[in-house]
Each structure stands twice: as C-alpha cells, then as structure tokens.
Amino acid sequence: MVAVVGLFAPVDAQTSKTRAHVQALASDRLEGRLAGSNGERLAGDYIVSQLQQIGAKPLPGQRDFRLPFEFTAGTKDGGSRISVQLKPDTTDARTSPPSVASGFSRTFESDVRALSFSDNGDVDGTVVFAGYGIVVPDSQDFGYDSYATLDVKDKIVVVLRYFPEDADQKTRSMLARYADLRYKAMAARQRGAKAMLVVTGPRSPNAGELVPMTFDTALAGSGLVAVSISGNVGGAIFRGADKTLEEAQRALDSANPHVAGFAIAGVNVHVHAAVEREKKTGHNIVAYLPATEPIGTTPKPWVAVGAHYDHLGHGEAGNTLAGKDDAGKIHYGADDNASGSAAVLAVASTLAGQPRKRNVLVALWSGEELGLIGSNAFADKKPVPLDQLAAYLNFDMVGRMQDNKLSVQATGTSPAWGRILEQANIAAGFDLQLQADPYQPTDVATFNGASVPSLSFFTGTHADYHKPSDTADKIDYEDLDRVVDFAAAIVRRIEDTADAPQFTKVDQQMQSGGGRAGVRIFTGTIPDYATDAKGLLLSGVIGGGPAEQAGLQKGDVIVEIAGQTIANIYDYTYALEVLKIGQPAKVIYMRDGKRRETTLTPAARK
Ligand SMILES: [Zn+2]
Ligand SMILES: [Zn+2]
User: Fold this and answer.
1) How far is the CA of 307 from the centre of ligand 1 (A)?
2) Model pLDDT, residue 513
3) Ligand nearest 443 Cα, by number?
4) Residues in the 5 Å CB sphere of ion ligand 1
5) pLDDT given at position 316
6) What is the mean pLDDT of residues 7-21?
7) Which of 69, 191, 307, 588 lies 20 to 30 Å (CA to CA) from residue 340?
8) Tens digits of per-residue pLDDT, 506-525?
9) Does residue 542 sit in the same domain as residue 478?
C-alpha cells in the first residue's frame, strides 16, 4: 500500500467503507445479479457473509437471512387459438365475396396471441363490439363510457387497441389515460364480459398487428380471458355485422361519446387462451441488529435501511438500455444498485458498533428491477409488522454524485424529515435536493404504500443507466462513503428519539391505471428524475431515436412540447399522450441559458 498525499488521493480499498462491496457485487462472477439467477444467489452469499461478520441476526422467528419469494420470470403464448363461425342463418350479403357461403367457419392460430395478463381457458359465445373499450371514471367529469348502452354480460367483447385517432388533443390526453389494455380488461370484466378480444384498427398505427407480449411478473391472470387478434380475424368477425371494422372505427375516431358499439349478431366465437408463465424464486436478504437497550414501551421499536441488490443480468428481462453493440453483455449495475447495497452494508456496520435504542432492520431486496417484487413480497408477508417501523431509508443509485448534489426523495412522508435532514447535513454538507414525492420507481414506494415514513437517497441518473457500462470503476467512493455517514446519522437520530416520525400521505400526482400505460409514443429522451429544474432536464438521448435526430442532447431542458408547457416529469408524461406518431411536434428547450427550438417526430413504440 502506497500512501498518496494530496487533494485527489484515490480512496483505498482498505479505507473506503464501500469500495470492496461494490467491486464484489459488480464483478463478472455475479453476472448482473438478475432475480432468480445464479448470480443473484452468489450475490446473496456475499451479503450474508458480510451480515454475519458484523453480528447481524436473522429476523425474529426466521432461521435464515434469505427470505424467498416466487415470481413470474417470463410469459409466452402457449398455443392460443380462435375460431369464428358465421351463423348459418346470416345472409352475408354485405362484403363477402360470393364464394364465401353462409355457415363459414374458420380457426386461426397464428392470428391470435394471448395478452400477458390473460387467464388461461376456453370461452365460447356471441360477440359485442365495444368500440375502444374505454371507461373514464365518473370522478373525471368527462363522460366517456364505451359500455354505456351495451349489455356485455356473458358475452365476448371485441375492442379496438389505443384510443380514438381523430379527437382533439385534450380529449386524446384524457382517453389515453384509460387506454391501457389492463384497464380495458378490468372495465370489460366488471361489466360481466367473459373474454376480451383486442384488434388494432385499420386506422391506427401498427394496423392489424398483434399486440406484443409484454413482460409481466404477475403470478396469475387478471380474471379474464384476453387475447389480441389480427386484422384478419377482426375482418372475419365483422362479417357478422352490417359494417366493416374500418367503418366502425371511423365512426368512433372523433371520440363523440354518443357513438356506441353494437352486438355482432351473426357470429359465434370460440377462443382458447394459453399463457405460459415461467416461475422462479428470488431471495430478499433481511437481517437485524437487535437494540442494545431494553425496548420497553418504545413506540415503533424498529428502524429499517434497505436497497435492492438485484440488477438486469444480461438484459434478458427487457428493461435494458444497451445499444446494439452491447446487447446481451453483463449489466454490472455498479451504481444500480451495488452502490446502494454497499451503502446499506456500511450503514449497518457503523450502527453495529454503537448502542441502539431500537432494532435496526437491514434489507437487501431482490426483484426490484422486475417491478419492486421483493419488497412487495416482504410487505405482504410482514415477517416484521410494518406498523412497527419508525422509518425506512432506501438507497438506489447513490454512487455517481455530481457537484455535491444528493437527492432525497419521499420527504413528504413525514413532517419530521425537514429538521432531521437539516441537522444531519450540518456535518455532511451536501447540496440537498429534497423531493416530497414518494411515488418513485424504487422500493421506497412499497414502504410509503404501507404508511411508513420513508426517505430515498439518489445521486441522479447518467448515460450508463441500465447499460453494461455501469461499472465499478465509475463509482465515486469518497462521496458514497459520505452518503453512508449521513444516513447512519439519520438512523441514529431516529433510534434515539422516543417519538417515532409521523406519517403523512402524499397525494399521487398521476392517476394509476393511465398515463404511461397508454403511451405508445417513442421519443428517445432519457429524463433526469433527480432534478428540481423547471422543465424536463435530459440526462441523455437514445442513440438514433427521434430526440437525437431532433438535435437534442444531454443537459438540454425541454420547456414546451406541441404548445404544452412542461414544468416537470408529469407534464411531460401528459404531453407524450397527445403527440401523434409520425407527426412533427415543435419542441422548445433551453441550452446554455438560451431558448432554442427544434422539431421532433415521434416514432411508434412496439
Ligand atoms: Zn435501482
Ligand atoms: Zn434499475
């Protein structure tokens, strides 16, 4: 070991609290730590050995640090098919060529695909066309219900994918929020339908194409048989109607709420839906440091620190941002989230050497990258009752600090946070970026959902996010160690204070079940979620995407799209809904303090 003196002396593995952990977790051997993989198991071995070294114990009532949970690792179609039978008494005089006799019956296999959330099973019945299948809740005071005049009880409904194509922007943005296929399935099921068939209308993008199977981690179906059908099958079904599918869609596309669907009396449909779900087992690793003093009557005698240790493996789960050249390589996930895991281990190690008035729960979650599965499984099983937690501190991507900026998210979950953070920061000296919103795409959302006062630390996104290039050599260990000290001081403060922080519920800024889900637009922007800047700060653009083609780049701040002011990420999500694929939109953005303008042409996301 060589002593290096000077301002920029590298932090040595011996003196850094976090470097060895990050290097171990982001090594080749662990292969990107995909939940349920061998790499996840090896990462778990490392974490367990570290927890044992500091004297942490399995949770009360548990023999092991590993808490397994089952999840769906992937879905594929298992041979769905559909037959369409024109009833013998139907005179199919409208469009069919003379060669097609009445009593036509056809079975399709390649023209049908189960939706990833479909139930498995067989359904037989008559068909009702329910337009776009969109129901805007009464609370929105908007008045759009595709089912208003229809009786679909025990019927098979056919709905169009997406939302009315020719509506004005305001209407589109409202309808888009309820156009997600899961939401449409829920609406159909609630009205008693037996099955939902989705067809991409002839007037829509991707006309006639099947809906790709999306990655879905749900363990079971959504309680409805739901498949997508091709334009061919749609055409066959509409032989039993007195309009073509295109005519029916055209009538709906102005979004006039009085245009209704109709029963397709002339056909019977049999649908067989089969989704194959591959089950795997992931492991949360959870330990605790028992209080060193009798807990007695201390309210909420636990405080928790946590981070997800899983990452994307080789990118096989579909949420990779790797370019073509990097596809299939190990996604090391040094910042996401070996950095947070290292921080949790280091905070625990610090606290292990100090007196404690509360138990400290130490959690390393898996399955976060697949949709917060691990922390949700913990919240469901409650090996420690969650109302016994005084607070939860989360770490996700804390290794790439820039300009001394530390984002602290979810501060709206307790009125106590402002003062606690201010006091802890006297010693730490960060430029704190406080964000009240707890509805973050990380495990803090789980604990907010369980009414636990929470914080989440984050040093911001970067161009290596979710790419194989997120490697251990790019981590800023000195500042990561400072985050550890800061967080340990906050935990001590909570341990020491007799009263637990009070929980405050923060209103969600975006309707669940809408928004993002209805978005089928691809702009190729990578928003910086960590900023409080007015507008949408780009932390990058996707190579070859529409944003790059429009000349946008990292550091640009978008302030207006297609005439809509963009003040934050929610405005941006909203604005995406009203853009049209292939239709150029004016974008106003700030670069180097100057206002500039460009034109961005959105592409279709498949
Ligand atoms: Zn993460
Ligand atoms: Zn991630």
Assistant:
1) 8
2) 30
3) 1
4) 336-337, 396
5) 85
6) 71
7) 69
8) 876 433 333 333 445 678 88
9) no
